[in-house]
Design brief:
It is built from seven helices and no strands. The chain is mostly helical. The chain has one domain. The longest helix has 24 residues, at 36-59. It is globular. The two termini are 17 Å apart.
Length: 118
Amino acid sequence: MLPRETKKYLFDIAEACDLIAQFTSGKTLADYKKDPLLRSGVERQFEIIGEALNQAIQNNPSLAELISNSSRIISFRNRLIHRYATISDEVVWGVLETNLPVLTHEVRNLLEKTGDGS
């Protein structure tokens, strides 16, 4: 059973994953590049994911082993915030296409195992 605070962070991650999927549904990298509002929304949700994961792991260190690439996800958040000028659109889009589905699946599974999946 996960502590309530940890579950809250997992819900935040799941919601941010869903929002990124919603924002980018039917979109291409070209769409992403030319739409500053889309880029801002996606990057903000990635920031939330990284921060929520960082907090969840601080509350429950065993989660680091249950979430693939957890340290890379947190590092990506830090880079988005502190070194935003070094992030290319292609990198963000690549993370969105490659890593986001895995994270979404893992977080949903964790929530379902605790009886709190939505």
